[in-house]
């Protein structure tokens, strides 16, 4: 089976090669994203593999079908960038990697909390310049604080367990409460109550019609003044301009983002010699109490290997025409 791998960085190529060598898969690696502009690259391939910011819309899917592509193997958990209905209509099979390392993303959410709280991003630069003054670096103890987790699936559950370990009171909201988390001492409450009671709110639900711009003027109004908001899920869960307004007013005291609504134009690339054409994003970076990372929550050795192994496994199962649990459409 010939596979065109899109959005492929050197680290992806290393792990995918090590897992697909000595199999019947023939992988060709492209740095570019799959979109209408790059669709001509798929000529002669049986399958494509994509990542979070490839634009797998209905038009792309239609052309994939015309080119003879029979499957799309996503190398990520989220699938909001794929038109599943169009894939189903065209008879293209979609696979994803549902649980490559919930711990990786959960630990990154905690890293953002710790950085924002103890201001290590600022301390690092101060100490390098010989400035050992502590004014402006005051943090707070996590023990005893109330942490709200929205979405308690694989990543949210891992996050809740870590925060319980810090001695936090963990409040949860999910459409499907987890008895395991309740048994571990977490408490499910309504979304409004979670907003009202939490010192820290971490987002771990998927992006869909009901969660789009979940963090907006209405929800922010219900939160404590100075709340910390962490988003490692999908950028469009947060209305960026409303978050900036709330940073100016002090409603948001700390903002940690690993994802951004318009990230597909900038993330995963070296933009250091370019002028980033996004004034909202540029403004966000100027706040001392905002930490942004470039969608690296998943980026651990363990997760990369799991992604590669599962992607290869998905393609081989498709080749053998077995129906499979990781098949989305
Ligand atoms: P999951 O499917 O295991 O859990 C998602 C949970 O959200 C489920 O329990 C579901 O019931 C809940 N949910 C759905 N709609 C909801 C709503 N309206 N309100 C509250 N809860 C709702 O997914 P998993 O693996 O935990 O991943 C969560 C998200 O994390 C993914 O959708 C993806 O967007 C993001 N992600 C980010 C990565 C990164 O590198 N930053 C890497 C992997 C995933």
Automatic annotation (TrEMBL):
<dbReference type="InterPro" id="IPR058205">
    <property type="entry name" value="D-LDH-like"/>
</dbReference>
<feature type="domain" description="D-isomer specific 2-hydroxyacid dehydrogenase catalytic">
    <location>
        <begin position="4"/>
        <end position="323"/>
    </location>
</feature>
<dbReference type="InterPro" id="IPR029753">
    <property type="entry name" value="D-isomer_DH_CS"/>
</dbReference>
<dbReference type="GO" id="GO:0008720">
    <property type="term" value="F:D-lactate dehydrogenase (NAD+) activity"/>
</dbReference>
<dbReference type="GO" id="GO:0051287">
    <property type="term" value="F:NAD binding"/>
</dbReference>
<comment type="similarity">
    <text>Belongs to the D-isomer specific 2-hydroxyacid dehydrogenase family.</text>
</comment>
<keyword id="KW-0560">Oxidoreductase</keyword>
<feature type="domain" description="D-isomer specific 2-hydroxyacid dehydrogenase NAD-binding">
    <location>
        <begin position="110"/>
        <end position="297"/>
    </location>
</feature>
<dbReference type="InterPro" id="IPR006140">
    <property type="entry name" value="D-isomer_DH_NAD-bd"/>
</dbReference>
<dbReference type="Pfam" id="PF02826">
    <property type="entry name" value="2-Hacid_dh_C"/>
</dbReference>
<dbReference type="Pfam" id="PF00389">
    <property type="entry name" value="2-Hacid_dh"/>
</dbReference>
<dbReference type="InterPro" id="IPR006139">
    <property type="entry name" value="D-isomer_2_OHA_DH_cat_dom"/>
</dbReference>
<dbReference type="InterPro" id="IPR036291">
    <property type="entry name" value="NAD(P)-bd_dom_sf"/>
</dbReference>
<protein>
    <submittedName>
        <fullName>D-lactate dehydrogenase</fullName>
        <ecNumber>1.1.1.28</ecNumber>
    </submittedName>
</protein>
<keyword id="KW-0520">NAD</keyword>
């Amino acid at each position: 089976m010939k596979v065109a791998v899109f959005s492929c960085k050197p680290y992806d190529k290393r792990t995918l090669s090590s897992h697909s060598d000595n199999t019947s898969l023939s992988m060709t690696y492209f740095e570019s994203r799959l979109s209408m502009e790059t669709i001509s690259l798929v000529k002669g391939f049986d399958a494509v593999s994509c990542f979070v910011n490839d634009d797998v819309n209905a038009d792309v899917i239609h052309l994939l079908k015309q080119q003879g592509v029979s499957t799309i193997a996503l190398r990520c958990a989220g699938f909001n960038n794929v038109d599943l209905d169009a894939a189903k209509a065209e008879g293209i099979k979609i696979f994803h990697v549902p649980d490559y390392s919930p711990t990786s993303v959960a630990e990154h959410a905690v890293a953002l909390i710790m950085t924002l709280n103890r201001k290590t991003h600022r301390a690092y630069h101060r100490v390098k310049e010989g400035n050992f003054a502590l004014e402006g670096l005051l943090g707070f103890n996590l023990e005893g604080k109330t942490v709200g987790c929205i979405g308690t699936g694989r990543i949210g559950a891992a996050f809740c367990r870590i925060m319980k370990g810090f001695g936090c009171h963990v409040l949860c909201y999910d459409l499907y409460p987890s008895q395991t988390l309740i048994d571990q001492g977490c408490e499910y409450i309504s979304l409004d109550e979670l907003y009202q009671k939490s010192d820290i709110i971490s987002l771990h639900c998927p992006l869909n019609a009901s969660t789009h711009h979940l963090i907006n003027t209405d929800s922010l109004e219900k939160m404590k003044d100075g709340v910390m908001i962490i988003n490692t899920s999908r950028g469009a869960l947060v209305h960026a301009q409303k978050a900036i307004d709330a940073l100016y007013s002090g409603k948001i005291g700390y903002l940690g983002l690993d994802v951004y609504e318009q990230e597909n134009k900038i993330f995963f690339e070296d933009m250091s010699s370019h002028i980033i054409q996004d004034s909202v994003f540029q403004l966000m970076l100027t706040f001392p109490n905002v930490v942004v990372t470039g969608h690296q929550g998943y980026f651990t050795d363990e997760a990369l290997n799991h992604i590669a192994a599962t992607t290869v496994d998905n393609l081989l199962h498709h080749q053998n025409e077995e129906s499979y649990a990781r098949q989305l459409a």
